[in-house]
Amino acid sequence: MSRDPAGTAPAGPALARWLTPPLVLLLAACTATEVTPHSTEAASPFAGCAALTAPPSAAPPSAAAPPSAAPPSVAPPPVAPSSAASGSLSAVSPAAAVAPDLPDVSLPCFTGGAAVRLTDLRGPAVINLWGSWCPPCREELPLMQQLADATAGKLHVVGVDTRDDREAGASFAADQGVTMPTLFDPGQKLLAAVGRVNLPVTVFLDAAGKRFVYNGKALDKPALGALVRTHTGVTVTG
C-alpha cells in the first residue's frame, strides 16, 4: 500500500478504497434515521353534516329505526303567508321562512369535507366554536355532546373546530366520545365573522333564525340548559 511522504495515510487509488467502507456506513445511517411522513389523514369521529340544512324535526330517521313521522311534540316551523295585499297565498318553503341571522360563511364538514354554508343551517340550533388547545373548550365540549343526545330531533347541535390541528381535534373528540356534526375552521373565519376573539363561543339560534352569541367562561349543565331554553325555545330534559 502506498503512503504519502509523511507516511500517515494511503494516497491515490488506495485512499479511495480506504475511505469507501466508512462512507457507505455513514450514508446508510442517514437513510435509517429519516422519518417517513404520515400520508393518512386522521379518521373523523364526527357525524356527517347533511341533515343540518333541514329543521331538526325534518332530519332523516336513524338507520336503526323504522321510518316514522316526526314526534307529535315537535312541529315543523310554520310557513309564512305572502303579503295580504296580494289577495292570495304564495308557496314559501320552510327553509326560506327561517333563514338564520348567521354570517354568510362556508366551512367544510369535518367528516367528508363537503362545504356547509352557515346561512343554509336551520334552527333551532346550538353552534359551539371550540378548539382542542383551549382548556375551557375541553371542559365544555362533552356537555355539548350530552345536549345533542338529550335533544335529538328537536335541536341541531353543531361543533366548529376552530384554529386547530385536524388530528388534535379528532383525537380529543374521540377520547371524549364527541360525535355531533362538526365543521372545520382552522382559519377562524366564523369566529371573526361573529366579532369574537376568544374561545369558547356558543351561538344559539331559534326556529325563526334569530341568534344569540355567548362568549364567556365554560358553561355548566344548568347554565347551558337555561340558555338553550331562553334562546332556542327548546327545553332540555335529563
From TrEMBL:
One of its GO terms (cellular component) is cell envelope. One of its GO terms (biological process) is cytochrome complex assembly. Residues 57-86 are annotated as: Disordered. Keywords: Cytochrome c-type biogenesis, Disulfide bond, Isomerase, Redox-active center, Signal-anchor, Transmembrane. It is found in: Cell envelope. Its main location: other. SUPFAM superfamilies: Thioredoxin-like. Residues 57-67 have a biased composition (Low complexity). GO terms for molecular function: antioxidant activity; isomerase activity; oxidoreductase activity. Residues 68-80 have a biased composition (Pro residues). The keyword Transmembrane applies. Gene3D superfamilies: Glutaredoxin. Residues 96-218 form the Thioredoxin domain. This is Thiol-disulfide isomerase/thioredoxin.
